[in-house]
Amino acid sequence: MRRLLAATCLIAATPAAAEPDWAPAVRADYTASLGSMWDWFHRNPELSFRETRTAARMATELRAVPGMTVTEGVGGTGVVGVLKNGAGPTILLRADMDGLPVEEKSGLPNASKARQVGVDGVESPVMHACGHDTHITAMVGTARRLAALRDRWHGTIVFVVQPAEERVGGAAAMMKDGLYTRFPKPDYALAFHVGAGLASGKISASEGIQYSSADSVDITVPGIGAHGASPHAGKDPVYMASQLVIALQGLISRERAPLDPGVITVGAFHAGTKHNIIGDEAKLQVTVRANDEATRKELLDGIRRVAAGIGTLNGMPANRMPIVKVSEGTPTTINDAALARRLNAVMATTLGATNVEPFEQGGMGAEDFAYLIEPNTKVRGYYFAVGGTPAADIAAARAGGPPIPSHHSPLFRITPEPAIVTGTIAMTAAVLDLMGPSAR
Q1: Cα–Cα distance between 115 and 296 in angstroms, integer?
Q2: CB of 44 within 8 A of CB of 115?
Q3: b or e along 333-362 (b: 16 or more beta carbons within 10 Å of the residue's beta carbon)?
Q4: How far is CA 198 from the centre of its chain?
Q5: How many whole angstroms separate alpha carbon 108 and alpha carbon 129?
Q6: Do 272 and 240 meet the contact criterion of CB atoms below 8 Å apart?
Q7: What is the reported pTM?
Q8: What is the pLDDT of residues 8-41, one digit of tens each?
């Protein structure tokens, strides 16, 4: 049973949603333009920090919005658009734009055929296997709608097109490049992610933790090479690394309370060249997840401790001990509770109470949006999920039918129109509430 975290509390007496008078314009925009835009983004995905064509297209689309000033090359390939409309709050809207090194097998008619060399120097197929094409398309729709509704809000909106969310490095890179000093610093930061497991037309947001922390850990296990027939003449790194894979799980199963979540997953194990050769090195790639900074530190410290212990156990000399390196990471993404309650109520009014689902943290996914709302920034954050799969498909899967492909799967697919329209309407409604006459 999944643990329910920070469920959204909706008042039973919430009236039925009265669709905003501007919502039909969002649907018309999808038919006229946004649908073909999504198609282009889906066919042309790009890897993290290599999103040059995507960034250029987004810069062009945002520049076409009346009153928008656009800056490119922020934090690498990031794009920032600023739309000012008098005195009032400053709100940052963020959409990530990178794809994944996955070969698309979705069966969609516009399935990606792209290939690209990533920042690691490796060429791979590329796919929007996490729906970021949906996010950036909805950002354009939101920008167009808010520009058309200038008489209903006042303040400054900062549109952030972020690179490299999949490497959890893009938000930090943009912050380092002066996102909050070169551009108006926000009072609020908002973002959404399409969810394949959430029905189309629905949204879901926590009043607390929305996503876990994530750290990528690379472990090098040195050995001493020898003939496979004479293992006593060397130190087998495959054996030691295998011990380490098993021992790391003890940090979760034997050092954490059963109801206190944490994840350590070894995603890659590389070693050796031939059947009868004991090599001199093994390499592990590990992802680590936690729901608070104390747990995050405990797990990372524990990995270092266990790795050193495996080296000692096998009699490795001090200069040949396992090496642990944390290469990428992001803290937990935690919504501001008061802001989430306010905007969840706005979503219920705009979309209908039955379309705002209680939030459940069903896994330990992560988001580098966290860098934009860290406590030291004093920026209040709201991150929500938008449904991406028809309710009938989800019901069929639960009844034993075809499963819904997960994010990052080569089979991943969402239904773009309801996701983009719902995301655009939800984001526009949130901004109008925060920047409307009552906010001044």
Answers
A1: 35
A2: no
A3: bbbbeebbbebbbbbbbbbbbebbbebebe
A4: 16
A5: 12
A6: no
A7: 0.90
A8: 444 334 445 678 999 999 999 999 999 999 999 9
Residue with tokens 């876990």, as numbered in its chain: 212
Two structure tokens written together for 402: 């075809």
Looking at residue 366, the DSSP 8-state letter turns out to be: B
| Pairwise CA distance, residues 194 & 201, whole Å | 11
Q: Please name the residue that has the structure tokens 């929305």.
A: 210
Q: Which two tokens stand for residue 167?
A: 């490497």
Residue 344 structure tokens: 């969840």
Q: Is 256 exposed, middle or buried (0-12, 13-18, 19+ CB in 10 A)?
A: middle
Q: How far apart (Å, rounded) are the C-alpha atoms in residues 296 and 237?
A: 27
pLDDT in tens, 41-82: 999 999 999 999 999 999 999 999 999 999 999 999 999 999
Q: Write down the pLDDT at residue 17.
A: 63
pLDDT > 80? residue 316: yes
Cβ atoms of residues 300 and 255 within 8 Å = no
Q: Which residues of 131-165 are buried (b: 16+ CB within 10 A; e: fewer)?
A: bbbbbbbbbbbbbbbbbebeeebbbbbbbbbbbbb
Query: Rounded to the nearest 5 degrees, what angle is found at the Cα of 397, between the Cα atoms of 394 and 398?
Result: 90
219 and 283 Cβ atoms separated by less than 8 Å: yes
> Distance (Å, rounded) from C-alpha 285 to C-alpha 126?
21
Token pair 């011990």 is at which residue? 243
Q: Let me know: does 76 contact 170? Beta carbons within 8 Å.
A: yes
Under 8 Å between Cβ of 333 and 373: yes
Provide the token pair at 52: 């040059």
Pairing assessment for the beta strands 281-290 and 209-211 based on DSSP bridges:
unpaired
DSSP code per residue over 135-164: HHHHHHHHHHHHHHTGGG--EEEEEEEE--
| CA atoms of 72 and 79, how far apart (whole Å) | 5
Instruction: Give residues with Cβ within 8 angstroms of 91, minimum separation 6.
Output: 155, 156, 157, 158, 186, 187, 188, 189, 190, 431, 434, 435
Q: Residue 279 corresponds to which tokens in the numbers above?
A: 């090599």
Nearby residues of 305 by Cβ (< 8 Å), 6 or more positions away: none
Element (H, E) at 301: helix 293-313
What does the pLDDT look like over 344-353, one tens digit per residue?
999 999 999 9
Q: Which residues are catalytic?
A: 98, 165
